[in-house]
Amino acid sequence: DSVLLDVRDLTVSFDTYAGEVQAVRGTTFHVNKGETLAIVGESGCGKSVTAQTIMQLIPMPPGRIKKGNVFFEGKDLSKLTDRQMEIIRGKEISMIFQDPMTSLNPTMRVGKQIMEGLMKHQQLSKADAKERAIEMLKLVGMPNPDKRVEQYPHEFSGGMRQRAMIAIALACNPKLLIADEPTTALDVTIQAQIIELMQELQNRLNTSIILITHDLGVVAKIADRIAVMYAGVIVESGTSKDIFHNPQHPYTWGLLQSVPRLDKGQKERLVPIDGTPPDLFAPPKGCPFADRCDYAMRICKEQFPNKSNLTDAHYVHCWLKHENAPKVKNPITERG
Ligand code: SF4
Ligand code: MG
User: Fold this and answer.
1) The CATH number of the domain where 264 resides is what?
2) Whole-complex ipTM
3) What range(s) does the ABC transporter domain occupy (predicted)?
């Protein structure tokens, strides 16, 4: 596999009146060409900040990259000028968000919003851009694209707006699509359709995807690999199969037990994880999950857990993997 995006030891803080918020604390991951990586975790875990840092969209100040690098095709994105980064953002990496109403321009026809990038980054004529906009709307499964291209966002349903966002994001054929909670605002049936659409487009266009979500259920079908993030760190990462069938971190166990699986037709929320994530003004020096973990040991509060590799692709940061730790029952692999 060839690496498209390589994030190394990324550490991002925000300086606020109340103090330094350590939002991302040493995150390392990569995305291969044509691959989907899901970054999963509760809100405030650093997943959106990670995405915005990749896009160089963090306002600085108050944001600050304390450490680490983001390499895209070998180029260190933090070393690019604003102008160079603007070109990358329009052509190479694009992003879609949870609420299309905040990123779609309500006063501009949807077609025109698709055309803008095409005219700017691909120097298409107006007529060609419009033709391509209609093609894109067709590609994302929009009924009556010839008519829709002339309409405004408020004339679209929630699901259609998300499709329009995807059309805008993919119009210039980017190498990487970052989707931050793209289906959270939608009902379950539409969620499944949008995920299916993303997967279909990925197969067709060979785009790499970073899918950011709090809901493991959403990623089951589409993710090749999954990184589970908690309190600014990746606590477990592996292939989709590793995470769903052989998870090793108690937080991953909690996530798996708390989310419905779309692919299994479950729609109800199951058991939520008790407690709240730690305060990122003063993150704990030990395991960040210790306060909520049923298995916490003394060392968990004292020292950040070492990385344990299960395979080349699968690793976990948890003291339960230490040879001297008590053996506990894995609630996912040893169910029933
Ligand atoms: Fe729980 Fe300790 Fe593992 Fe953290 S390191 S998840 S507190 S057992
Ligand atoms: Mg977020």
Assistant:
1) 3.40.50.300
2) 0.95
3) 5-256
Task: Give distance in angstroms: CA of 336 to centre of ligand 2.
Answer: 34
pLDDT in the model for residue 301: 96
For the stretch 272-283, pLDDT in tens is: 788 888 888 889
In the beta sheet, which residues pair with residue 225?
37, 239
Q: Could you tell me if 7 and 48 are in contact, meaning their C-beta atoms sit under 8 angstroms apart?
A: no
Overall pTM surpassing 0.80 (yes/no): yes
Residue 293 Cα: closest atom of ligand 1: 1
* pLDDT tens by residue, 69-102: 999 999 999 899 999 999 999 889 999 887 777 7
User: What backbone torsions phi and psi does residue 181 show, to the nearest 5 degrees?
Assistant: 50, 50
Share of the chain above pLDDT 70, in %: 96
SS3 call for 139 = helix
CB 292 within 8 A of CB 274: yes
Domains in the chain, number: 1
Q: Domain containing 198: what range?
A: 3-107+152-321
Residues flanking ligand 1, CB < 6 Å: 249-250, 287, 289-290, 293, 295-297, 300, 305, 318-320
Tens-place pLDDT, residues 151-171: 999 999 988 998 999 999 999
Pocket test for ligand 1, best of 234, 273, 289 (most atoms within 8 A of CB): 289
Instruction: Note whether residue 261 is domain-resident.
Output: yes
How far apart, in whole angstroms, are the C-alpha atoms of residue 254 and residue 260? 12
Q: Across the strands, what pairs with 14?
A: 21, 63
171 in a domain, yes or no? yes
Within a domain: residue 120? no
Closest ligand relative to 304 C-alpha: 1
